[in-house]
Amino acid sequence: MRENPFRISGIVTGKYFIDRADECQAVIETMRGQGEKMLIYGQRRMGKSSILLNAAARLRKEKEQVVYADISPATSLTDVANIILHAFNKETGGTVNWIELLRQIQISFTISSQGIPSLDVSLKKESADKQLTCLSAVLDSLDAYAAKKKLTLIVDEFQKMVEFGAEAAEWQLRSAIQQHQHLNHIYAGSQTRIIDQMLMKDRAFYRFFEILSIGPIDETFMGEWIDERFKQAFGKPYSVGAECIRLAGPRTRDIVKLARKSFVFAQRSQKIDSLVADAIQQLVSEEDDFLRPQWDHLSNLQKDILKVVASGVTEISSQATITRFGLPSSSKLAYHFNTLVKSDVLGKDSDGYHFDNPFFKHWVAQTLPEA
Ligand SMILES: Nc1ncnc2c1ncn2[C@@H]1O[C@H](COP(=O)(O)OP(=O)(O)OP(=O)(O)O)[C@@H](O)[C@H]1O
Ligand SMILES: [Mg+2]
To answer: Cβ(251) to ligand 1 under 6 A?
Structure first.
């Protein structure tokens, strides 16, 4: 059995990581600086966290310290502070004199028997303001450390921070971060709608960060990278990469997932022609348990709209489409398209509407009469 060269769980590193040379370089330059502030953003599953961790791994080889805090499990600003403290402790190997460093935070914190500091959980019951003051103090203490030894803080799923404290939190955070002359702050986030709003003109983070926008990997490069992995494993040329990209769309994880399943099929059969089509079919049927409840949850009109998008018609509000799918007038349709965008089932760009999840698109396409 050959090892599958495509990984879809967690952060990919080493031989599983398709090089993002420019993006990694930009992140590394920020990490080498002092007092830098960068925001990495892009759509879900594009590969933001993998870029950050690959860049961090390179910096660590040069003995630099990079604290990586994924705050997605947090349910309060106190949790955010604690996740950052724990990550800091992990990175600095427990060598920090916490009592000295946290002295400035005039709130209670405990240090576990393993030497890990935590803010008192009772703080979660306090106002967002109070919690934010403590979080700012934690960030200040990291900046104080960075004054002596270079340090970068990465906060992944950053939009959570302001979810807990509303807009007021943004201004308070901004003023804390702005004062840091030593600590490099790198924030990453994927709910582009929330982050887009956070960066608007009247909001605190307007023009505050250097922005690194993460888009799709170059199609030719990625297609060839996939084909090369097949060739290395099976000792003959395969041409599956471009088809994976065509069927899975622009998000890195979706493409890698389809390549991974195609690889499983290639191990079982000599039939090369329909490899990717068979793989997507299989993925869609494996995900039926997960996709069907999503479908059942939608109104009949929303289902019809999804059928229109899955059918690939481009003129969605044309009379021909309205008649073919039995839809209401186009003025009513706009509202319902919007609700599907707000709930992340559909996305919208300059080319029109598309499914957020390409496998859901194929699942819905199967329900069409022509399927
Ligand atoms: N450069 C890459 N090389 C190979 N696979 C990648 C790469 N980037 C992303 N992937 C694939 O996509 C998956 C998701 O990547 P990652 O978690 O880095 O994305 P993300 O943009 O941070 O996603 P999310 O928005 O969900 O946080 C990985 O587990 C891997 O399967
Ligand atoms: Mg991520």
So the answer is: no
